[in-house]
Design brief:
The protein is α/β, with parallel strands linked by helices. It is 28% helix and 24% strand. It has 11 helices and 15 strands. The two termini are 12 Å apart. The structure holds zinc ion (ZN).
Length: 348
Protein backbone atom coordinates (compact mmCIF):
# COMPACT_ATOMS: atom_id res chain seq x y z
CA UNK A 1 0.00 0.00 0.00
CA UNK A 2 0.98 3.67 -0.31
CA UNK A 3 1.83 5.70 2.80
CA UNK A 4 3.60 8.87 3.87
CA UNK A 5 6.55 7.63 5.89
CA UNK A 6 8.72 9.43 8.43
CA UNK A 7 12.21 7.98 8.80
CA UNK A 8 13.69 10.32 11.42
CA UNK A 9 12.57 13.18 13.63
CA UNK A 10 12.65 16.48 11.76
CA UNK A 11 12.96 14.93 8.31
CA UNK A 12 10.26 15.39 5.64
CA UNK A 13 7.80 12.52 5.14
CA UNK A 14 8.08 10.58 1.88
CA UNK A 15 5.45 8.79 -0.18
CA UNK A 16 6.43 5.11 -0.23
CA UNK A 17 5.11 1.66 -1.04
CA UNK A 18 5.02 -0.26 2.27
CA UNK A 19 3.68 -3.67 3.36
CA UNK A 20 -0.01 -3.92 4.33
CA UNK A 21 -0.49 -3.65 8.12
CA UNK A 22 -1.14 -6.97 9.89
CA UNK A 23 -3.83 -7.06 12.55
CA UNK A 24 -3.74 -8.79 15.93
CA UNK A 25 -6.71 -10.62 17.49
CA UNK A 26 -8.11 -7.40 19.07
CA UNK A 27 -7.50 -5.15 16.08
CA UNK A 28 -9.36 -4.14 12.95
CA UNK A 29 -8.05 -3.20 9.52
CA UNK A 30 -9.48 0.06 8.17
CA UNK A 31 -9.26 1.32 4.60
CA UNK A 32 -8.55 5.03 5.13
CA UNK A 33 -10.74 7.44 3.12
CA UNK A 34 -9.72 10.74 4.72
CA UNK A 35 -7.34 12.05 7.37
CA UNK A 36 -7.24 15.49 8.96
CA UNK A 37 -3.96 17.37 9.17
CA UNK A 38 -3.32 19.76 12.04
CA UNK A 39 -0.79 21.30 14.36
CA UNK A 40 -1.01 18.38 16.80
CA UNK A 41 0.61 16.04 14.27
CA UNK A 42 3.12 18.61 13.11
CA UNK A 43 4.29 19.15 16.69
CA UNK A 44 4.10 15.48 17.71
CA UNK A 45 6.58 14.38 15.06
CA UNK A 46 9.00 17.10 16.21
CA UNK A 47 8.75 16.17 19.90
CA UNK A 48 11.55 13.90 21.14
CA UNK A 49 10.22 10.56 22.38
CA UNK A 50 6.68 10.93 21.03
CA UNK A 51 7.30 8.80 17.94
CA UNK A 52 8.45 5.59 19.58
CA UNK A 53 10.13 3.95 16.59
CA UNK A 54 10.91 4.53 12.93
CA UNK A 55 9.89 4.26 10.16
CA UNK A 56 6.52 5.65 11.24
CA UNK A 57 3.34 6.70 9.40
CA UNK A 58 1.83 9.81 11.08
CA UNK A 59 -1.81 10.98 11.17
CA UNK A 60 -4.66 10.35 13.59
CA UNK A 61 -7.78 12.20 12.39
CA UNK A 62 -8.70 9.35 10.13
CA UNK A 63 -11.94 7.91 8.83
CA UNK A 64 -12.62 4.94 6.62
CA UNK A 65 -14.20 1.52 6.17
CA UNK A 66 -13.54 -1.61 8.22
CA UNK A 67 -12.24 -4.30 5.85
CA UNK A 68 -10.97 -7.04 8.19
CA UNK A 69 -11.45 -8.11 11.82
CA UNK A 70 -9.14 -9.77 14.35
CA UNK A 71 -10.37 -13.09 15.75
CA UNK A 72 -11.44 -11.58 19.12
CA UNK A 73 -13.22 -8.48 17.76
CA UNK A 74 -16.90 -8.44 18.75
CA UNK A 75 -18.20 -4.86 18.48
CA UNK A 76 -17.23 -3.91 14.93
CA UNK A 77 -18.31 -5.38 11.56
CA UNK A 78 -16.69 -5.46 8.15
CA UNK A 79 -18.16 -2.57 6.15
CA UNK A 80 -18.66 -0.29 9.17
CA UNK A 81 -17.76 3.35 8.55
CA UNK A 82 -15.51 4.38 11.43
CA UNK A 83 -13.20 6.96 12.90
CA UNK A 84 -10.70 6.56 15.73
CA UNK A 85 -9.82 7.76 19.22
CA UNK A 86 -6.34 9.31 19.20
CA UNK A 87 -4.94 7.82 22.42
CA UNK A 88 -3.92 4.23 23.03
CA UNK A 89 -5.29 3.38 26.47
CA UNK A 90 -5.43 0.26 28.65
CA UNK A 91 -9.18 0.30 29.36
CA UNK A 92 -8.58 -1.28 32.77
CA UNK A 93 -6.96 1.30 35.07
CA UNK A 94 -8.70 3.56 37.56
CA UNK A 95 -8.73 6.53 35.15
CA UNK A 96 -9.98 4.49 32.17
CA UNK A 97 -12.74 2.95 34.31
CA UNK A 98 -13.82 6.31 35.68
CA UNK A 99 -14.40 7.74 32.21
CA UNK A 100 -11.13 9.65 32.05
CA UNK A 101 -9.31 7.47 29.56
CA UNK A 102 -7.08 10.32 28.37
CA UNK A 103 -5.41 10.17 31.81
CA UNK A 104 -4.77 6.41 31.48
CA UNK A 105 -2.21 5.18 34.02
CA UNK A 106 -0.74 2.76 31.47
CA UNK A 107 -0.83 4.92 28.33
CA UNK A 108 0.35 3.29 25.14
CA UNK A 109 1.07 6.54 23.29
CA UNK A 110 -0.80 7.90 20.31
CA UNK A 111 -2.09 6.77 16.91
CA UNK A 112 0.42 7.97 14.32
CA UNK A 113 3.24 8.08 16.88
CA UNK A 114 3.35 4.82 18.89
CA UNK A 115 1.60 2.89 16.09
CA UNK A 116 1.28 3.71 12.40
CA UNK A 117 -1.34 6.34 11.59
CA UNK A 118 -3.75 7.48 8.92
CA UNK A 119 -1.48 8.97 6.25
CA UNK A 120 -1.82 5.65 4.45
CA UNK A 121 -4.27 3.58 2.43
CA UNK A 122 -4.83 1.17 5.34
CA UNK A 123 -4.37 1.23 9.12
CA UNK A 124 -4.55 -1.40 11.88
CA UNK A 125 -6.34 -0.08 14.97
CA UNK A 126 -7.30 -1.55 18.35
CA UNK A 127 -11.02 -2.37 18.56
CA UNK A 128 -11.18 -0.10 21.64
CA UNK A 129 -10.29 2.95 19.52
CA UNK A 130 -13.04 2.48 16.95
CA UNK A 131 -15.92 4.99 16.89
CA UNK A 132 -18.78 4.47 14.40
CA UNK A 133 -19.68 7.25 11.94
CA UNK A 134 -23.42 7.99 11.71
CA UNK A 135 -25.16 8.03 8.31
CA UNK A 136 -25.07 11.47 6.74
CA UNK A 137 -21.62 12.40 8.08
CA UNK A 138 -18.84 12.28 5.46
CA UNK A 139 -15.48 10.57 6.00
CA UNK A 140 -13.57 13.84 5.98
CA UNK A 141 -15.94 15.49 8.44
CA UNK A 142 -15.81 12.46 10.75
CA UNK A 143 -12.02 12.30 10.65
CA UNK A 144 -11.69 15.96 11.55
CA UNK A 145 -14.41 15.55 14.19
CA UNK A 146 -12.33 12.97 16.07
CA UNK A 147 -9.93 15.67 17.29
CA UNK A 148 -10.43 19.18 15.87
CA UNK A 149 -14.14 19.23 16.76
CA UNK A 150 -14.33 16.78 19.66
CA UNK A 151 -11.62 18.71 21.51
CA UNK A 152 -13.81 21.85 21.51
CA UNK A 153 -16.74 19.71 22.72
CA UNK A 154 -14.80 18.64 25.81
CA UNK A 155 -13.18 22.05 26.37
CA UNK A 156 -16.43 24.05 26.16
CA UNK A 157 -18.71 21.57 27.89
CA UNK A 158 -16.58 19.91 30.57
CA UNK A 159 -13.73 22.33 31.31
CA UNK A 160 -15.00 25.85 30.55
CA UNK A 161 -18.58 24.83 31.47
CA UNK A 162 -19.96 27.29 28.91
CA UNK A 163 -23.68 27.88 29.33
CA UNK A 164 -26.42 30.00 27.75
CA UNK A 165 -25.71 33.70 28.14
CA UNK A 166 -22.02 33.27 28.98
CA UNK A 167 -19.28 35.20 27.25
CA UNK A 168 -16.51 32.97 25.89
CA UNK A 169 -13.13 34.25 24.77
CA UNK A 170 -11.37 32.04 22.19
CA UNK A 171 -7.68 32.79 21.59
CA UNK A 172 -6.41 31.27 18.35
CA UNK A 173 -9.93 31.32 16.91
CA UNK A 174 -8.95 31.11 13.23
CA UNK A 175 -7.03 27.84 13.43
CA UNK A 176 -8.18 24.30 12.76
CA UNK A 177 -9.40 23.70 16.29
CA UNK A 178 -10.21 27.37 16.93
CA UNK A 179 -12.91 27.75 14.28
CA UNK A 180 -14.69 24.74 15.74
CA UNK A 181 -14.26 26.15 19.26
CA UNK A 182 -16.13 29.25 18.05
CA UNK A 183 -18.96 27.08 16.70
CA UNK A 184 -19.05 24.92 19.85
CA UNK A 185 -19.17 28.02 22.05
CA UNK A 186 -22.23 29.13 20.08
CA UNK A 187 -23.83 25.67 20.38
CA UNK A 188 -23.36 25.94 24.17
CA UNK A 189 -25.15 29.29 24.09
CA UNK A 190 -22.28 31.72 24.50
CA UNK A 191 -21.45 35.07 23.01
CA UNK A 192 -18.06 34.33 21.44
CA UNK A 193 -15.20 36.82 21.31
CA UNK A 194 -12.60 35.58 18.83
CA UNK A 195 -8.92 36.52 19.03
CA UNK A 196 -6.39 35.81 16.31
CA UNK A 197 -3.82 37.52 14.13
CA UNK A 198 -4.69 38.96 10.73
CA UNK A 199 -7.80 39.47 8.65
CA UNK A 200 -7.93 36.01 7.04
CA UNK A 201 -8.17 34.21 10.38
CA UNK A 202 -10.55 36.73 11.92
CA UNK A 203 -12.79 36.62 8.82
CA UNK A 204 -12.94 32.83 9.13
CA UNK A 205 -13.77 33.11 12.85
CA UNK A 206 -16.56 35.53 11.96
CA UNK A 207 -17.84 33.16 9.26
CA UNK A 208 -17.95 30.43 11.92
CA UNK A 209 -20.15 32.53 14.18
CA UNK A 210 -17.88 34.74 16.30
CA UNK A 211 -19.82 37.69 17.72
CA UNK A 212 -16.82 39.97 18.32
CA UNK A 213 -13.32 40.00 16.82
CA UNK A 214 -10.00 41.08 18.33
CA UNK A 215 -6.79 41.29 16.30
CA UNK A 216 -4.01 40.36 18.74
CA UNK A 217 -1.49 42.43 16.78
CA UNK A 218 -3.31 45.53 17.91
CA UNK A 219 -2.51 44.63 21.54
CA UNK A 220 -4.49 44.95 24.73
CA UNK A 221 -6.62 41.77 24.46
CA UNK A 222 -7.84 42.00 28.08
CA UNK A 223 -8.67 45.71 27.80
CA UNK A 224 -10.72 45.05 24.65
CA UNK A 225 -12.56 42.13 26.30
CA UNK A 226 -13.45 44.29 29.29
CA UNK A 227 -14.60 47.04 26.92
CA UNK A 228 -16.75 44.62 24.86
CA UNK A 229 -18.33 43.14 28.02
CA UNK A 230 -19.02 46.47 29.70
CA UNK A 231 -16.29 45.90 32.27
CA UNK A 232 -17.56 42.49 33.43
CA UNK A 233 -14.96 40.31 31.72
CA UNK A 234 -15.41 36.88 30.11
CA UNK A 235 -17.00 33.91 31.90
CA UNK A 236 -14.51 31.59 30.24
CA UNK A 237 -11.38 31.92 28.12
CA UNK A 238 -9.99 29.07 26.03
CA UNK A 239 -6.40 29.55 24.96
CA UNK A 240 -5.19 27.48 22.02
CA UNK A 241 -1.89 29.25 21.51
CA UNK A 242 -0.18 28.39 24.80
CA UNK A 243 2.26 31.31 24.87
CA UNK A 244 2.95 33.29 28.01
CA UNK A 245 1.42 36.45 26.47
CA UNK A 246 -1.84 34.79 25.45
CA UNK A 247 -2.23 32.87 28.72
CA UNK A 248 -1.73 35.99 30.81
CA UNK A 249 -4.09 37.93 28.53
CA UNK A 250 -6.71 35.17 28.86
CA UNK A 251 -6.46 35.24 32.65
CA UNK A 252 -6.68 39.03 32.75
CA UNK A 253 -9.75 38.91 30.48
CA UNK A 254 -11.79 36.82 32.91
CA UNK A 255 -14.53 38.22 35.07
CA UNK A 256 -15.17 37.04 38.63
CA UNK A 257 -15.62 33.27 38.74
CA UNK A 258 -14.11 32.92 35.26
CA UNK A 259 -12.52 29.75 33.90
CA UNK A 260 -9.27 29.67 31.93
CA UNK A 261 -8.84 26.53 29.83
CA UNK A 262 -5.46 25.72 28.29
CA UNK A 263 -5.39 23.58 25.16
CA UNK A 264 -2.57 24.64 22.93
CA UNK A 265 1.00 24.44 23.95
CA UNK A 266 4.10 26.06 22.55
CA UNK A 267 6.88 23.74 23.70
CA UNK A 268 10.14 25.59 24.28
CA UNK A 269 12.07 22.96 22.31
CA UNK A 270 10.10 23.89 19.17
CA UNK A 271 9.35 27.59 19.60
CA UNK A 272 12.27 28.79 21.72
CA UNK A 273 10.27 30.88 24.20
CA UNK A 274 9.45 29.71 27.72
CA UNK A 275 5.62 29.66 28.02
CA UNK A 276 5.61 29.63 31.83
CA UNK A 277 3.15 32.27 33.05
CA UNK A 278 2.49 33.76 36.46
CA UNK A 279 -0.57 33.93 38.69
CA UNK A 280 -1.06 36.41 41.51
CA UNK A 281 -2.60 34.22 44.25
CA UNK A 282 -4.34 37.09 45.98
CA UNK A 283 -6.14 38.37 42.88
CA UNK A 284 -6.74 34.80 41.71
CA UNK A 285 -8.53 33.66 44.86
CA UNK A 286 -10.29 36.97 45.48
CA UNK A 287 -11.89 36.69 42.02
CA UNK A 288 -12.47 32.93 42.43
CA UNK A 289 -10.82 32.16 39.12
CA UNK A 290 -10.18 28.64 37.81
CA UNK A 291 -7.42 27.28 35.59
CA UNK A 292 -8.10 24.05 33.72
CA UNK A 293 -6.11 21.96 31.32
CA UNK A 294 -8.06 20.09 28.66
CA UNK A 295 -6.75 16.66 27.71
CA UNK A 296 -8.41 15.52 24.47
CA UNK A 297 -11.73 13.64 24.81
CA UNK A 298 -13.41 10.32 25.53
CA UNK A 299 -14.77 8.07 22.76
CA UNK A 300 -18.26 8.93 24.02
CA UNK A 301 -17.50 12.61 23.41
CA UNK A 302 -16.44 11.80 19.84
CA UNK A 303 -19.83 10.10 19.34
CA UNK A 304 -21.66 13.17 20.67
CA UNK A 305 -19.57 15.42 18.44
CA UNK A 306 -20.48 13.31 15.40
CA UNK A 307 -24.14 13.64 16.37
CA UNK A 308 -23.83 17.45 16.43
CA UNK A 309 -22.41 17.29 12.90
CA UNK A 310 -25.19 14.94 11.75
CA UNK A 311 -27.74 17.41 13.09
CA UNK A 312 -26.04 20.28 11.29
CA UNK A 313 -25.34 22.18 14.53
CA UNK A 314 -21.60 22.12 13.80
CA UNK A 315 -20.22 22.51 10.28
CA UNK A 316 -16.67 21.15 9.88
CA UNK A 317 -14.45 23.90 8.48
CA UNK A 318 -12.15 21.95 6.17
CA UNK A 319 -10.67 24.73 4.07
CA UNK A 320 -8.34 22.76 1.82
CA UNK A 321 -7.81 19.13 0.87
CA UNK A 322 -4.77 17.32 -0.50
CA UNK A 323 -4.06 13.86 -1.93
CA UNK A 324 -2.06 11.50 0.32
CA UNK A 325 1.15 12.65 -1.40
CA UNK A 326 0.40 16.25 -0.33
CA UNK A 327 0.78 15.57 3.40
CA UNK A 328 4.26 17.08 3.58
CA UNK A 329 3.09 20.26 1.83
CA UNK A 330 0.18 20.51 4.30
CA UNK A 331 2.62 20.15 7.21
CA UNK A 332 4.83 22.95 5.83
CA UNK A 333 1.84 25.28 5.50
CA UNK A 334 0.80 24.59 9.09
CA UNK A 335 4.33 24.98 10.42
CA UNK A 336 4.54 28.37 8.70
CA UNK A 337 1.13 29.37 10.12
CA UNK A 338 -0.02 29.89 6.51
CA UNK A 339 -3.40 28.17 6.87
CA UNK A 340 -6.87 28.95 8.16
CA UNK A 341 -9.32 26.31 9.37
CA UNK A 342 -8.57 22.58 9.00
CA UNK A 343 -6.66 20.77 6.27
CA UNK A 344 -7.32 17.17 5.29
CA UNK A 345 -6.04 14.41 3.02
CA UNK A 346 -8.52 12.63 0.77
CA UNK A 347 -7.46 9.17 -0.40
CA UNK A 348 -8.35 7.87 -3.88
ZN1 LIG B 1 -5.95 2.97 31.50
Amino acid sequence: MKAMVLHRMGEPMRLEEVPMPRIGPNEVLVRVRACGVGLTVVKAIQTPGRVTSYPRIPGHELAGDVVELGSEVRTVKVGDRVTSHYYLTCGQCRQCRSGRETLCERPGGHVGAAIDGGYAEFIALPERNIVPIPDGVSYVDAGVASDAIATPYHACHKEARVGPGDTLLVIGAGGGVGVHMVQMGRVCGARVIAVDIGEDKLDLAAANGADDLIDARKGGIAAQVHSITGGRGADAAIDMVGARDTLEAALASLGTGGRLVMIGSRPKHIYGDDPTFSINPEAFSKRALEVHSSRYVTSAEIEKTLELIRLGRIKPAVTRTFPLSGAQEAHELIRNNATTGRLALLMD
